[in-house]
Amino acid sequence: MDFLKIDDPIQICDIGASPVDETDFIEELLNNTNSQLIGFEPNENEFQKLDKNKKNRKYYNFGIGDGTEKTLNICKAPGMSSFLEPDINYLKNFHGFEDWSKIIKKVKVKTKKLSEVKDSIDFFKIDVQGYESEIIKHGKDKIKNSLIINIETSPTPLYKNEKTFSSTIIELEKLGFNLHMFSKINTRSFKPIIFFKNPYIGLNHIHQLDCVLIKNLKFINTYNTSQLSKLILILFYSFKSYDLVDYLLKILDQKNNTKFVEKFRSILSKIKIVKKY
Q1: Percentage with pLDDT > 90 across the chain
Q2: How do 177-187 and 206-215 pair as beta strands?
Q3: What distance in Å separates the CA atoms of residue 274 and residue 277, rounded to the nearest whole number?
């Protein structure tokens, strides 16, 4: 995609930047495009594990929330730590979670509202263990002005007072976004059943969903060259949405009298395409 140039970097915001889960979709973008990342991680232990030496990344050791001091519930499994308390009555139905969700420490941490972040953001990754609705509530303008969102949600809440997947998606729809794809579908099996000799996966029951949302196409049609180019690069490198990339390149070509879509189709002919689900 070297033919597609952008003057200013793609601005990525990683809310819940703990390295406990791999984020290849962000690394692909950082490694292949002109991109910069700012990340927020309130758990001091997880913050120290972040790679803070790369010039295109900045990390901050505070949370994004409602702007007040919050209690962070640090769980035995760091990836379950949250401003909310795990709902053990639900989680105990699945292998491992009764142990992983144990709160081993409570610490007071500072938060800032997303609206207080000075940077303009193109691409949000939000993984905050049930606290997504508060991020959205106190950062609507920031989110509304972004291009794409990758957010983790749960159809059945894993935490007390967590909003459901459907509620979260509706809030983002009100800001002009539509669900484009699931970047991850995490299933779990009810105890005592184990499928495929693997307690970390399930058959059908959806545990968590990583959702990718883009603006409604009627809004995308009004994007300028920079916005379109950034969105195309994110969709190409991070999410392999080649058909949508093709669609957007045609809009870009019409705006600028270019023939980028022909170059892209030449690249696409050499790519092994795998259906995700």
Answers
A1: 94
A2: antiparallel
A3: 9
* Residues listed for the chain: 277
Distances (CA, A) of 82 to 71, 162, 234: 9, 11, 28
pTM recorded for the entire structure: 0.95
One-letter amino acid for residue 60 of the chain: Y
Go through 256-268 and write b for each residue having 16 or more CB atoms within 10 A of its CB, e for each that does not: eeeebbeebeeee
Q: Which stretches of 139-205 are assigned E, i.e. beta strand?
A: 148-153, 177-187
Query: Could you give the count of Cα atoms lying within 13 Å of 62 in the half-sphere of its Cβ?
Result: 14
Count of structural domains within the chain: 1
- Interval 159-194: pLDDT, tens: 999 999 999 999 999 999 999 999 999 999 999 999
The answer to whether residue 221 sits within a structural domain is yes
CA dihedral 199, 200, 204, 209 (to 10 degrees): 160
Do 8 and 166 touch, CB atoms closer than 8 A? no
Task: Please give the angle made by the CA atoms of 261, 275 and 202, to the nearest 5 degrees.
Answer: 150
CATH number of 84's domain: 3.40.50
With H, G, I as helix, E, B as strand and everything else as coil, classify residue 63. Answer: strand
